[in-house]
Amino acid sequence: MTDYNIGAKIKKLRLAKKLTLQAVAKETGFSPALISQIENNNVSPPIATLSKIAKFFDVKVGMFFAEDEEECRFEVVRKGERKLIPRVISRSGTSQGYSYESLSFRKQNKKMEPFLLSVAEKAAEENTYSHDGEEFLFIMQGSAELLLDDERISLEEGDCVYFDSSLKHRLLSKDGSEVKVLAVVTR
Fold first, then answer.
1. Strand 160-164 to strand 169-173: parallel, antiparallel, or no bridges (unpaired)?
2. For 25-37, what is each residue's pLDDT tens digit?
3. How many CB atoms lie within 10 A of CB 51?
4. How far apart are the first and last CA of the chain?
5. If exposure means fewest CB atoms within 10 Å of the residue's CB, which of 1, 100, 107, 137 is most exposed?
């Protein structure tokens, strides 16, 4: 997370609007403590949390992953250039059992955000998330279970799913072994 300095970008947006942590928390539905932890780069928020924060500040999620302000028309990200976003933490402060990498962080004003998700353990909690936009998930490795509203959908290697992100959702490892997923999210 510190590689992208997401927390500092959020704090800069908040201070530019002269808002308190409490005001941002009230409008986004997160606790002031969580907003503070994110701003101080103590925790990495799930993509859904970043999406809600981005919507509140009227910016694209991609701006949190941008390395510079210069716009480019195309982008190549080499395997060794990807930066892991570790320690994804839920609203309640518990580990979510997954990490992700942004597969596009230089190109700004994108209509979609591609990520490589790694679900590395069976989650203790099965809380779900929802946000604006749409998602596409392609299971590259392992067996997963997608909680989608009131359904539990089994997904195997090679399977994919496309859904409206406003549906409550959560991707889990089916048996506790690692699952690798190509995830594309729109705003």
1. unpaired
2. 999 999 999 999 9
3. 24
4. 21
5. 107
Pair (174, 87) in one structural domain: yes
Residues 89 and 152 in one domain: yes
The number of domains in the chain is: 2
Are 170 and 107 found together in one domain? yes
Residue 72 lies in a domain: no
Which candidate, 181, 162, 166, 85, places its Cα nearest to that of 131? 166
pLDDT beyond 50 at 10: yes
Residue 88 placed within a domain: yes
The rounded distance, in Å, linking the Cα atoms of 140 and 156 is 9
Contact 40, 6 (CB under 8 A): no
Same domain for 58 and 13? yes
For the full predicted model, state whether its pTM sits above 0.85.
no
Same domain, 84 and 142: yes
| pLDDT tens per residue across span 128-145 | 888 888 999 999 999 999
The whole-chain average pLDDT of the chain stands at: 84
Q: Is residue 1 part of a domain?
A: no
Range of the domain at 126: 79-186
pLDDT of residue 86: 60
Tell me, yes or no, whether 117 and 47 share the same domain. Answer: no
- Answer yes or no: are the C-beta atoms of 80 and 61 closer than 8 Å: no
DSSP 13-41: HHHHTT--HHHHHHHHT--HHHHHHHHTT
